[in-house]
Every structure is written in C-alpha cells, then in structure tokens.
Amino acid sequence: MFVRFGAGLAAVAVLAAALWLYARAWTPDRAEYPTQGVTIDSGDGQVEWDTIAAQGADFAYIRATDSQAARDPAFADNWRRARLAGLRYGALVEFSLCRPPADQGTAFMTTVARDNAALPPAIRLAFDPRCTARPGRDRLLSDLNTLVNLIEGHAGKPVLINVTEDFNETYRIGSGINRTLWLDRNFFPPDYTGGPWVMWTASDMRHIDGVDGPVRWNVVTP
C-alpha cells in the first residue's frame, strides 16, 4: 500500500511540474491574437530589450510611476531601450487610493515626456496592500477622472484603463468611466466588466529570456 501511495505522490509531483512548465511558457495563439507584448517595471531587473523583441513581444507597457506616486527608477532607461529595440512602447501609471490625483498626475507629467509615437498611456487600477483607504465609488470616480484629464492633457491621447477583477467588483469601473479597457485573467479571456476590452493580460506567469522572473504577458484584441 505504501509503495502505491508513494508512486501516486510521485505521479502528482510530475504532473504538477509539467503544468508549471507549461504555464511558464504559455501564450495565446498568435493566429487569434497576433499582437502581443509585455509589462515591464524596475522589479524586472536589467532588461535585455533586443532579446524580448526576439521572443515575440511587439510592444511594451513600461511603468512610469508606482502606487506611491514615485517614479519608477528604471523608467527612463527602459523607455529609451524599448524604442531602440523596435518595440511599440507606452507608459503605465499605478493608481493610488491614498494619494491625491493631482499629485499622481504631476508625477506622470514630470516623468513621461510627451511623445507622439508612444502608445496611449495606461492607468492601472489594483488594490495595493500598503494602502487601506477605500473611498466611496463617487469619490473614486471623481479622483480617477481628475487623473485621466491630467494625463490625457499631457499625453495628447486617450488613456487605457487596466482594472483588476477585484477592483472592478468593488467600484464597477466598466460602467463608471468611458474609456478603453485592459483586463486581467490568467489563461482565459476576461468578462468581468460586462463589456468589451481591447487588451488582456493573459498570463502573469510567463518566463522569457531577457527578463528576471515572470512577466505580465498582454495581447490585443484583433
């Protein structure tokens, strides 16, 4: 009995390892989603941008400011090198429930120069464990609209709203702001806003050469 039990555990371990390796390499089918890319920030270490491009990334969203309204220290270098590697590039701002929207807008404007070749800037809405504030929906939407107006005025193009499922469940962002949506869900297309989306983070587990650790792998709807 113990021999069979041990063999069963070994089989489970082998299956788990195989699934883990599959998840590390998985991406949506290029025939269905031909345009794919990554999200990058300073936590990814020294990024080898030519290698990322060779791995199939067509574009990159690069974090400009974090949820503490601080500049990402690697932003300027990543911005420049992504462009040199031939990728399309866009800036991402992590929204904070604990910071005034004017401060967050100022941080973006002093970090990201206006660039007509850049992709539309993105605002990421996700709960940060370092911030326990939970304002009402009306206040949240008012603050978010203030930040949207500041960023759009500086960038000269509409923003993209990247909202997580739990954030949307709390604040119903999909029905609260009229902007293009970018949603998250590993492996399966998301539907939690009840409406269309243009970009999907299909995996936050993918490992690629040129980046330390997993990356958020994104696809654009055809």
| Overall 3D form | globular
Q: Helical amount among residues, as a percent range?
A: 25-40%
> How would you write the strand order of the largest sheet?
1-2-3-4-5-6-7-8
Radius of gyration: 19 Å
Strand content: 15-25%
String of helices and strands? HEHEHEHEHEHEEE
**Count of DSSP helices?**
6
> What can be said about the biggest beta sheet?
8 strands, mixed, barrel
Mean pLDDT, rounded to whole units? 91
Poorly predicted spans: 9-18
Strand element count: 8
Distance separating the two termini: 54 Å
Structural class: alpha/beta
Q: Summarize this, please?
A:
The protein has 222 residues and is α/β, with parallel strands linked by helices. It has helices at residues 2-25, 49-54, 75-84, 101-111, 137-155, 165-171, and strands at 36-40, 59-65, 88-94, 122-125, 160-163, 180-184, 199-206, 215-220. The chain contains six helices and eight strands; from the N terminus they run H-E-H-E-H-E-H-E-H-E-H-E-E-E.
Describe the protein's architecture and organization:
The chain has 222 residues and is an alpha/beta fold. Helix content is 35%, strand content 21%. It contains six helices and eight strands; from the N terminus they run αβαβαβαβαβαβββ. Helix 4 packs parallel to helix 5. The longest helix has 24 residues, at 2-25. It is globular and about 45 Å long. The chain starts with a helix and ends with a strand.
